[in-house]
Amino acid sequence: MLSFSDILHILPQQLVFGITLGTIYGLIAIGYTMVYGVLFMINFAHGDVFMIGAYVGWIVLGALMGSHAVPLHPAIVLPVMLIAAMLFTGLIGLGLERFAYRPLYRRGATRLGPLISAIGASIFLQNAVMLTEGARERVYMTYAVFPRSWRINLGGVNISVLVLVIAGVAALMMWGLHQMVQRTALGRSIRAVAEDREIAAVMGVDVWRVVATAFFIGSALGGAAGVLVGFYYTQIDFFMGYSAGLKAFTAAVLGGIGNIRGAMLGGLILGVVESLAITFINPAFKDAVAFGVLILVLVFRPGGLLGESLPDWKKI
Amino acid sequence: MQVLLQLDQVVTTYGPIRALKGVTIEVRAGEIVCLLGGNASGKSTTMKTILGIVRPKSGSVYFAGERIDRLPTQSIVGRGISLVPEARRLFGRMTVWENLAMGAFTRRAELHSELEQDYERVYALFPRIKERLGQLAGTLSGGEQQMVAIGRALMARPRLLLMDEPSMGLSPALVDQVFDIIQTINQQETTILVVEQNAAVALSVASRGYVLQNGRVVATDQAENLLAADDIRRAYLGDE
Known about the structure:
The complex is a heterodimer.
Chain A: H1 4-39, H2 46-67, H3 74-106, H4 112-133, E1 138-139, H5 142-145, E2 151-154, E3 157-160, H6 161-183, H7 185-195, H8 197-202, H9 207-233, E4 235-236, H10 240-255, H11 260-280, H12 286-300
Antiparallel strand pairs in A: 1-4, 2-3
Helix pairs in contact in A: 1-6, 1-7, 1-9, 1-10, 1-11, 2-3, 2-4, 2-9, 2-10, 3-4, 3-9, 6-7, 6-9, 7-9, 10-11, 10-12, 11-12
Chain B: E1 3-14, E2 17-28, E3 32-36, H1 43-50, E4 58-63, E5 66-67, H2 73-78, E6 81-84, H3 96-103, H4 112-125, H5 127-131, H6 142-154, E7 160-164, H7 172-187, E8 191-196, H8 199-205, E9 208-213, E10 216-222, H9 223-228, H10 230-236
Helix pairs in contact in B: 3-6
């Protein structure tokens, strides 16, 4: 049993881990929620897009380490890895939209067809990575970039720089996305399509271009999350997208699917709840606790924390 | 006068249902034309066909001499047609200002100063809007929403303004106000095609009218003649 002073000692540390995990969940959850917002479908291949981001980061990191062209400082290595992973996964997202979903919608598909197609795309992406990169885990050389000794003391809590950087990068990306969505014409057009696609088209918005943009941005953020998770857990494999995707999807639903701020909030709550459950209940129960929170929230707020009740035509 | 919009023998179907059965309508530059008809007469389908939201099965739509019935909606809108939709359909989760900005979406490449004139024009027509720019559109009253919907459509600086049931759900005083504004907008050189169930008020501002019934044009004339015609009065003006 933990004593009160133990708890006081552990709690801040666990909160930091929880928030870090939460920002990553939030970053992945945005991909689910943006696509749902404009297309009302769950892109079940999104977890695998995230996994591919982790692999692209790993390949780039390996190349940088092998070439000795640049010093292995995070300020150089991390942006290069992130940009490469985001571009690649953004293009994968565009490809998914173009080849796995749009042809179905153009033929008047209802909700189930694209869902099946998403599951198929997920299996395809996993197997493509398994065949090209192998089924064994790959190891991120995290400590070559973020030495173990890089720790700082924040108000009595000893935190590794890696954790701060991960949470900071994720938070910065979410902030940037939020600014874009709230303040630019592109962001307004995304919100317009999410709210009323017919009227958005009447305003002159090219709806399919907006859908493709949402796929690109959501997938790129998922790819960035893949790199961050690679650094955090140091091991990646072709199946990692499944559980992370499920968690992030849960976070999106918890926050209110279709709502970008909801995805961020849902991710944070899920991350914190999970890390507290690991410490104070039992690590084996972390998923049970996380889904328990989801169930509780949905019982009292079926639309999620920030979600609104949907008009009938948007309900699944 | 130059013909701005022309529908020529337009047939539009929803599956097996023929909603428009060969509709021919002409709107000349500078006019207010009204489209009358009861429920399911094909009025809204006519609007949707013009905007490319639904595709005609046969026939053609011309705007300013160019055939537009195969173009995607955003291209049709980009050529200078705006819609004030039935039941307003504002973006309720956006502010009033953002709704106006969405109206100017086709002009997003233009300089801020050019758009500024159009914002000012909208504020001059609807002073109430200016007081509520930061408010979420979904929280406005019905009358205010109608003003924002008209303002939003004007932000595109349209050559042709389509209005679908602008009087719906408004009090009689507000209906008068809306139609006064329709006249003002028309005097500012915007051509208007208005769909209305409220025939009396629509014909009072329109120069010409078409009467739709079961997807066909059954009558067309000058507004004052339609107002005087016995069968029209019986069918649409509630006279016995």
